[in-house]
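User: Good morning. I'm curious how nickel (II) ion would be positioned relative to this chain. Could you predict the structure with it bound?
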Amino acid sequence: MANPILKIRNLTTRFFTEEGQVNAVESVSFDVEDGEIFGIVGESGSGKSVTALSVIDLIESPGRVTEGEIWYRNEALAEEFRGSRPAAVDGDFVDVRQLPEGVRRSLRGPSFSMVFQDPMSSFNPSLTVGEQIAEAVEVQRRARSNPRSTRSRTQGYGLGSLIADTLLPSQSYVSEESMERAVELLDQVGIPDPEDRADEYPHQFSGGMLQRAMIAQALAGEPDILVADEPTTALDVTIQAQILNLLRDLQEREGMSILMITHDLGVIARMCDRVGVMYAGEIVERGPLGEIFDAPVHPYTQGLLGSIPDVDDPSTRLEPISGNVPSLIDSEMPDACYFADRCPKAMNDCLTRIPEYELDGRHSVRCVLAEREYDPTEAIDSEVLADD
Ligand SMILES: Nc1ncnc2c1ncn2[C@@H]1O[C@H](COP(=O)(O)OP(=O)(O)OP(=O)(O)O)[C@@H](O)[C@H]1O
Ligand code: NI
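Assistant: Good morning! Here's the predicted structure, ligand included:
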């Protein structure tokens, strides 16, 4: 039964750069349900990572989430803010964007956690892997024993170096208990001889093993939602499959939800329950995996699927559909469907911004073909559009 843990509504993120305003994420909406893996797929530059970072509140200047809501189901927080910030509460949900900064920060770790493509950059090279995971455990323990004041000061998050820099400028001290938990976590993610490996430094780990360690660190806070941004892209195919299986096992065992970001339809096919397809900062089609793969409506989704010979092969990469990935600079974006200039079925109707059409409540699409058949007599010359 569908029970959302996260409801993203009209999330919009812009970067205010010297070249102009970049509309990286445009009015994106989706739910992540309890215990599911929701995938976001799209070509490079379509806004997947910025969506992930926006959800977990890690957008930095010159970027800003300018609009939208991030409803997170958490009874305790809803209770806490029902009186003081009624607009931020709806039933058991709180809109994370409307919570005080300190509270938002305290959600990193116990509520939201993240694994990235490059584990090396998220570990501090001068501390052992065990120490850094134990640190994440301690942050979590402190947060639990003192829910308010400590939580708002700590940086409980899957970034070992960040935690280390913040709490322990020069050396690490972690309790024996936290170290034991760290070893347990390393064991849980399938690292052999976890007790010995815990005393090693990041550079002594292989890429795959370090990726496992980063997952262990992200799990230290027992998060409700794990955001995984291209977690296997840097790894070779065999290791990729192992890490994906691990994430799946952990997701089932811990009952957490995963937001999986990838450009790889093979990963989506293998892992996800539901999927959102991104193009030019928008989710252009969203629905259950089977429906998106078997009955895609958006010509972009059809193109993506048509470009892969074998969806069971996780090494398959997206072949770009002919034409250019659009500029996301505000002044250069057309007042039309963003895909129209590459779309084989572009019609006169497409020369305006397209809303999200609901097909059956679970499947939605940003395309006029949701409502009507393609009519070749109304076709527009996409080349003309491209030159606009
Ligand atoms: N710090 C930044 N400053 C300016 N623009 C940015 C910044 N970060 C991202 N963008 C822009 O936002 C858009 C979306 O980028 P994003 O990283 O989300 O793409 P992506 O779908 O994750 O691509 P990839 O598959 O290559 O990781 C791009 O046009 C990118 O140039
Ligand atoms: Ni990305």
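Residues 148-165 have pLDDT under 50 and may be disordered. Residues 237-254 form the longest helix (18 residues).
Let me know if you'd like a different ligand tried.
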